[in-house]
Amino acid sequence: MGTRMDDIIPISICIPCYNNPAGVKKLLDSILSQTFGTFECIITDDSADDRTKEVVKPFLADGRFTYVHNAKALGSPENWNYCASLAKGAYIKIMHHDDWFSRPNALQQLYDCAVQSPGCGFIACGCSNCDTEGKILDAAMPDKRFLARLAADRAELFYANALRTPSTTLIRRDLFKPFDPKLVWLVDLEQYMRILEATSLAFLPVSLVNVTVSSPDQITRRCEYSLDVNLQEYVYVANILWGKSVPLRASLHMALVLARTLAANLYFLKAPIAMYALLPLSAGYWGARGVLKRALKWLTAAKQA
């Protein structure tokens, strides 16, 4: 049974942040510029100093804004979960501290889509990828074929997270699921799939959020070519989705992730070890567990060498 939107605040904007006062300021300015004004905004701060607190302070005169400085840094994604747990709105709108709304009617469009799609508890929109200076690099928008496949099978996100960052999403609070603290790289798509097990997606084919993609401090940058993170998290998520019955397509996908990640790490591994790790692929060992366990074993040996 859905939450009655006229009983409570329509939208809770949740901003879990860490050591990015300039990004938080840009995001808060974009929130204040929204034509849709019936929201609450919750900032939970993991920063070690008071720079973000000083940036936020002027906004607190507006009763819609709440700031919490965590006594102890929670880390990602625990700070995301804590921020969302404080929400009282009908919908939760996570915004990362280095993303911001691209137009004044962004919240209005998302809310209108939610109202017009009562059977969909998960709303998402397109976004624009930006560098650290705020320059737009390109647009990110899933095509209609992907959205059709996703409507038929939530596991499509396992192969490509075309919905991107949580900053592009608006999720009904009674359907919101905490992010899994065991995950870092696949944490968002795994949460999306759990939510889509209980509801449907309504997608707005317009870029409403600017997303920073080139910051060297982002978790994405630290995880994308990490063998440990990629291999362990893909196996973990595959086990959640399929248990022991991992489909061939998923096994092939994980094998390709393995090959890509190993190739990116050739510089750091001894060449013979890297080539040996690829042998199971060429030999046709497409069973994901066997391939990934071998790769992790060889990676551990390489690090100890």
From TrEMBL:
One GO MF term: hexosyltransferase activity
Entry-linked Pfam families: Glycos_transf_2
Statement: the UniProt record of this protein carries the keyword Transferase: yes
Alphabetic keyword roster: Transferase
SUPFAM superfamilies reported in the protein's UniProt record: Nucleotide-diphospho-sugar transferases (SSF53448)
InterPro entries listed in its UniProt record: Glyco_trans_2-like (IPR001173), Nucleotide-diphossugar_trans (IPR029044)
All copies of domain Glycosyltransferase 2-like, residue ranges: 12-176
Protein name, per record: Glycosyl transferase family 2
